[in-house]
Design a protein that fits this description.
Elements lengths: L10 H18 L10 H7 L10 H4 L12 H14 L4 H26 L2 H7 L3 H14 L4 H4 L5 H22 L4 H16 L8 H13 L3 H27 L15 H20 L16 H20 L1 H14 L21 H17 L2 H22 L4 H11 L4 H13 L3 H14 L4 H13 L3 H13 L5 H13 L3 H14 L4 H13 L3 H14 L4 H13 L3 H14 L4 H14 L2
Length: 600
């Protein structure tokens, strides 16, 4: 084994590292006010385990159906953010950025230690510190990284990147140390295990470390195994952590061969994806938040990727260092950009989080080999330009409306982007704009039950109940049958005079939402329309029992009791309604009239 002593960073590089860190913070400073979007909302607001962040057992067993399901370390990190800021986004953005800075720091350590190894020392050793800082600065400030750092729920990708880099760093310290090497190797194993419990892409790390050893440390496979077989047994054992997490994940259907997406179709799509990633690494525009689930076969792109893989294999046989960089790039992409379908997104920029470090390293080192130290000034300029691009991209994350509008403009065929733009517009009070977005969703994806349901509800609220019914029926054909949907459907039916059909919808909604006072109230209105006052009184009474402060239910109960000649009871309900809603003129008139009548 060849050991390579690595001196600590000097004052100059430490100052450069500090300045680079400040530049990274400045580039992302505008993101801290950005809202939760897309998967963030469910992972934070529907994740009950975050609210008891001090109960580690619950935190490490996140609920099913979330982005952190089966990823206990990622969920624990969200719990840390919740402890910082509750449901305010800044705490989540802060932890994401801290992870990014930590990964950049580890990247400096990995690159400088690699460049000081015997095989590379003659060419790069004299400038190892400066080259490592250049790689880390360009990587950390690249606008492509906003897909991981700014989008809160790519915390999983950020954690995987951090623990992958920590695994490599621990390994490098371990093999270089004269004393204490076993401790560093144990750090590498623990980091790898934590990464496995953060995101499934860590599956390749034990193989990556082994081939790093083969390429840069021991020189061949058998020597690497003989030198550290117990370490590799421990590193391989971390796959058991991943298996346990996969078995308990609760996210079935999002990825894997059972995800409901064609394996061949997904694999063919990845040719286009990988070439897009390479282009964005060179020129990061246009950046897209959500590419959707489109499948298309670009055979030329696939052939190009196959050629790159072949070139990597050829280079590894003749120039192992160059070949290893190619292997590292494809290995980092393989879990999500090969033949294992990820049904939620066929292209995703966050997948380039660590592969980008490989590309940046290759370019920075090639430029240095050609131009020498003159090239370092070039990377300082590139890093500054990257920081400006990152700051600008973060402006597009200022609101859910902005990021989805940007996505729709860049991917107009993405039905999911139109749907989420509709949600953002509706939340901002622009119902007309929301309806236009949901209509666009249905033009692209006519069977989208969620868009049909939202469009139906919006039309009904706007007084277009007859038109809304067509979309309620379409949503039902698409499988929508939840209680809120049925309640809204019943309200639209009642608005057009179809009281019997409305009663049936409210009855079905009541089965799903037995504790909902609104469903009981609406059912009472349908029963009144059908002339069934006795049943209506029961429904209104159930509504006020579930919510004693429900002024409208008290008022309608009073009306129904009056119709049955129960004036004293009706007066009590009208008085309750007036007490709860003092400005209700109808309740005031009815109270006065009944008091006058009962006083005779």
């Amino acid at each position: 084994m060849n050991r390579s002593a690595t001196p600590p960073l000097g004052n100059g590089p430490i100052l450069a590292l500090a300045l680079g860190s400040l530049l990274v913070v400045a580039a992302w400073a505008g993101s801290f006010g950005g809202p939760f979007v897309f998967d963030d909302i469910a992972a934070v607001r529907e994740n009950s385990t975050l609210r008891t962040w001090w109960k580690l057992g619950e935190v490490l067993a996140p609920p099913a159906g979330l982005s952190v399901s089966g990823r206990p370390v990622a969920n624990a990190s969200l719990a840390l953010s919740y402890a910082l800021s509750g449901e305010q986004p800044w705490g989540y953005h802060a932890v994401n950025l801290a992870l990014h800075l930590g990964t950049a720091g580890l990247l400096v350590g990995v690159v400088r230690r690699t460049l000081r190894r015997q095989e590379l020392r003659e060419t790069f050793g004299a400038a190892a510190d400066e080259l490592a800082l250049a790689v880390a600065a360009v990587w950390a400030l690249h606008p492509l990284q906003t897909a991981t750092v700014t989008y809160v729920m790519q915390r999983t990708e950020g954690l995987a990147g951090f623990f992958a880099m920590a695994t490599l760093y621990g390994f490098l310290r371990g093999v270089a140390a004269e004393r204490g090497g076993r401790g560093w190797l144990m750090v590498a194993i623990v980091a790898c295990a934590l990464g496995m419990a953060s995101k499934e892409v860590m599956v390749v790390l034990p193989v990556v470390v082994f081939f790093y050893d083969r390429t840069w440390v021991e020189g061949n496979v058998m020597a690497a195994w003989r030198a550290r077989k117990f370490f590799y047994a421990g590193l391989g054992a971390t796959w058991l952590v991943l298996v346990v997490c996969l078995l308990a994940k609760g996210r079935d259907g999002s990825a894997g061969w059972d995800a409901g997406m064609s394996v061949a179709g997904y694999a063919l799509m990845q040719g286009e994806a990988i070439w897009r990633y390479l282009r964005l690494a060179v020129w990061p525009a246009p950046l897209v938040f959500d590419y959707g689930t489109e499948l298309s076969a670009n055979y030329a792109a696939v052939a190009g990727v196959v050629a790159l893989v072949g070139a990597t294999a050829w280079a590894w046989a003749r120039r192992p260092g160059v070949g290893f960089l190619g292997f590292l790039f494809f290995a980092a992409l393989a879990p999500s950009s090969s033949f294992v379908p990820v049904a939620t997104q066929t292209i995703a920029e966050h997948r380039m989080y660590l592969p980008l470090a490989v590309l940046v390293s290759a370019v920075v080192l090639s430029a240095y080999a050609w131009l020498g130290k003159r090239s370092l000034w070039l990377w300082a300029a590139v890093a500054l330009a990257g920081s400006l691009g990152t700051w600008t991209r973060n402006l597009e994350y200022r609101s859910a409306r902005d990021i989805w509008a940007d996505t729709v403009a860049k991917r107009p065929g993405n039905a999911r982007a139109h749907f989420n733009l509709g949600l953002a517009l509706s939340a901002g009070g622009d119902e007309a704009g929301a309806r236009a977005a949901w209509t666009a969703t249905l033009r692209i994806e006519p069977a989208n039950a969620g868009a049909s349901a939202k469009l139906a509800e919006s039309l009904a609220q706007a007084g277009h109940a007859e038109e809304a019914l067509r979309y309620f029926e379409a949503a039902a054909r698409g499988g929508r049958s939840d209680g809120v949907f049925l309640n809204n459907w019943g309200s639209a039916l009642l608005a057009v005079g179809r009281a019997a059909a409305a009663r049936d919808k409210f009855a079905a909604a009541q089965v799903r939402l037995p504790e909902s006072p609104e469903v009981r109230f609406n059912a009472g209105n349908a029963l009144v329309a059908l002339g069934l006052e006795v049943e209506a009184i029961e429904a209104f009474r159930a509504a006020v029992q579930l919510r004693p402060g429900y002024a409208e239910a008290h008022y309608n109960l009073g009306v129904a009791l009056s119709a049955m000649g129960q004036y004293a009871a009706a007066l009590a309900e009208f008085e309750s309604a007036l007490r709860l809603a003092p400005g209700d003129a109808s309740a005031r008139r009815n109270v006065a009239a009944l008091r006058a009548y009962l006083s005779k």
